[in-house]
Design goal:
single chain, 257 residues, Rossmann fold, 2 domains, six-stranded mixed β-sheet, six-stranded parallel β-sheet, 10 helices, binds 2'-monophosphoadenosine-5'-diphosphate
Length: 257
């Protein structure tokens, strides 16, 4: 029987997951389809029931549902549990399992840049859904210090509850850092600007943007002009998808076919 996979989110139009997963499905000659679906929050429980009943065989989850899905799952991987974030859902022996492949995606993506993370200091902008995964990955890579700043204080403080070791910086202020990571949605639109003094902070620093579409946000473009090394979130996207695909494709390698 044909297997059915989906990525769900709201908005969902921008998602490139169907393109990438469909490419791998074809390349591996799997009898499966992978589509995107715009969902409202009150439809989340129903779609997970569809996995239980094997009307759907696997899901990827994007904003804003990575936390919302958790109460409906049977088992969380360790990474999903500590980040309170799920981006992959699949069924294994009657259990609905949630995993978070963003952590490994971010880590492996960063490893491909040859930047040294160990004993460095990072400054994260934003406190949205992807940030716990970034913090956990940086900790695995033995970062020595994490600063975090968010427009809305309350969300920064929630992040500090989850990770007491991070230091919160007032929005608009910049601490000393080696690596700065934009994890806000500023930059999705071409004209978006982050209000920091690139001239004084960019030289010999590493600027990373989780955004990969557009390829080069103003954040990266300006930092590069003032002497920084830069990287966008494309490889994070590819590696989280790859690990997720291994889960989904288990349907074809196990006896569940
Ligand atoms: P969610 O909050 O649903 O997880 P997200 O897209 O994962 O959404 O995160 C959006 C991030 O971008 C948040 O950190 C948000 O800051 P707030 O918590 O203050 O909303 C940040 N963000 C979005 N637009 C912004 C802007 N114009 N200026 C500053 N921060 C912005």
């Amino acid at each position: 029987m044909n297997k059915k996979f989906l990525v769900i989110g709201n908005p969902i139009e921008h998602s490139l997951s169907p393109k990438l997963h469909s490419y791998w499905i074809k390349k591996n000659n799997l009898r499966a389809t992978y589509d995107k679906k715009l969902l409202e929050q009150n439809e989340v429980q129903k779609i997970i029931l569809d996995i239980r009943e094997e009307k759907i065989h696997g899901l990827n989850i994007t904003v804003p549902f990575k936390k919302v899905v958790i109460p409906f799952l049977d088992i969380l991987s360790n990474e999903a549990r500590i980040s309170e974030s799920v981006n992959t859902i699949y069924k294994d022996k009657d259990k609905i399992i949630g995993d978070n492949t963003d952590i490994d995606g971010f880590k492996t993506g960063l490893e491909t840049t040859n930047q040294i993370i160990k004993n460095k200091e990072a400054f994260i902008l934003g406190a949205g859904g992807v940030v716990p995964s970034i913090i956990i990955a940086l900790k695995k890579m033995q970062i020595s210090k994490i600063y975090l700043s968010n427009r809305t204080d309350l969300k920064a403080l929630e992040m500090k509850k989850l990770f007491p070791e991070i230091k919160i910086i007032e929005w608009g202020k910049t601490p000393n850092f080696d690596i700065i990571i934009n994890a806000t949605s500023i930059g999705l639109n071409d004209k978006d600007e982050i209000n920091i003094d690139y001239r004084n902070i960019s030289k010999n620093k590493f600027f990373y943007d989780v955004i990969y579409n557009p390829k080069e946000t103003n954040f990266l473009r300006k930092a590069k002009q003032f002497g920084a090394q830069t990287e966008n979130g494309k490889m994070m996207f590819v590696y989280q998808a790859q690990k997720s695909f291994f889960h989904l494709a288990q349907y074809f390698t196990s006896s569940r076919q």
